[in-house]
Amino acid sequence: MTGELKYKELELPNYHNSRAIFAGLTVSDLAKAAVLGGLNLLLVGDTGSGKTQLASDIYQHYFRGNKEEGGQGVFMRAHPDIDIYNEIFTKLNIEKKQRELTNSLEAMIFWVDEINRAPPIGQNQFFGLGDGKMDYGGREINIGRNGYRFLIATANIGNGEFSGTFDTDKALFSRLHVTLNLEHAPMKPTYEDKEKIRKRKADPNVVTAHKRDISDKIAKAREEIRNATINEDLETRAILDYLEQGLQNCQS
Predict the structure, then answer these.
(1) CA distance 212 to 200
(2) What is the rounded distance in angstroms from the CA atom of residue 13 to the CA atom of residue 59?
(3) Predicted pLDDT at 2
(4) SS3 at position 140
(5) Which DSSP string do the residues of 26-51 spell out, in sequence order?
(6) What angle do CA 59, 60, 61 make, to 5 degrees?
(7) What is the rounded distance in angstroms from the CA atom of residue 241 to the CA atom of residue 245?
(8) What is the rounded CA–CA span in Å between residue 72 and residue 212?
C-alpha cells in the first residue's frame, strides 16, 4: 500500500474471516477495501454471524470509537423513535433558547446498528449520512473530516424471524455501496477462522477492540486512491478492476 498506512495496520483484532470471495480477496479484505475507498458498508446476517464484531473492530481499532471519548466516530442504535438531528447533531443552548450544531458533524465514521429497526420514515434520516451531507436551517452542511466520511450499518434481513424490523427503501440501499451478507454460505468464516476465534475467547459477546486512531492515514490513503483514479496508469487500472470486481460479488 502506498503512503504511510501499512497493510498490517489494517489487521482486524477480533473478527476473522479468511473466506476467499474473488481472486484471493477474503471477506475481511473486502471490508477493509470499503473503508479505504470510503464506500459505505452494510453488514447483514443472523445473530452470531459476526456483523457487530466486524463493525466494532473497524469503529474502535481504526477510528478510536466515539467522538465524546476522543475518537472520530458517532454510534447510533436505530429504534422507532430515533431522532438523530436532535439527539446527536444538535443541542439546545438554553441561554440563546435555540438549537446549535454539535461537533458530531465532524466525525469520520458513522455506525448505525440494526438500521432496519427504525421504520422507513425514520430511516430517511440516514440518507444524509450516506451522501455525506446534512440539511439544517435551510442549508446543506458537509459532514466528515479531511474529505473523508464512512457509514457502516448492520441489519438482520431476510429470514423472517426478527420481529420489530422494517423494510428498507431502495434509495437507502443505494447509499450503502457494499453489502456483505455474513450469513450467506460463501461468505461465512471458515472452520479455521471459527477455531481461532474460539481459542481466543470464551465470551460469546462482542469484544471491544483496543482503541486506536489511524483515521488520518485512512483519509490520506482514500485521497491517494481518488487521485489514482483520475490519473491512472495500466497497473492502477488493473488493481482498481480487481477490487471493483471483488466488491461487486458482495452485493446482497
Answers:
(1) 20
(2) 12
(3) 47
(4) strand
(5) EHHHHHHHHHHHT--EEEE-STTSSH
(6) 105
(7) 6
(8) 10
Cell 451522501 belongs to which residue?
131
CA 156 to chain centre: 15
Predicted TM-score (pTM) of the model is: 0.87
Which one, of 243, 226, 232, lies nearest residue 26 by Cα? 243
CB 11 within 8 A of CB 58: no
Q: What are φ and ψ of residue 168, in 5° steps?
A: -120, 135
Maximum separation of any 2 CA atoms in the chain, in Å: 60
Helix or strand (DSSP H, E) at 134: strand 133-136
Cα torsion 133, 136, 140, 143: sign: negative
pLDDT per position in the chain (252 positions), as tens? 445 788 899 999 999 999 998 778 899 999 999 999 999 999 998 888 899 999 999 999 999 999 999 999 999 999 999 999 999 999 989 998 888 999 999 999 999 999 999 999 999 999 999 999 988 878 899 999 989 999 999 998 755 555 678 888 889 999 999 999 998 899 999 999 888 777 765 455 788 889 999 999 999 999 988 887 777 676 666 666 665 655 555 544
| Nearest CA-CA partner of 92 in 82, 100, 104 | 100
The backbone torsions φ and ψ at residue 68, rounded to the nearest 5 degrees and listed phi first, read: -65, -15
Closest CA to 104 of 67, 77, 130: 67
> 58: part of which helix (H) or strand (E)?
helix 51-61
The predicted pLDDT at position 169 comes to 86
215-230 and 27-37 helices cross at what angle (nearest 10)?
80
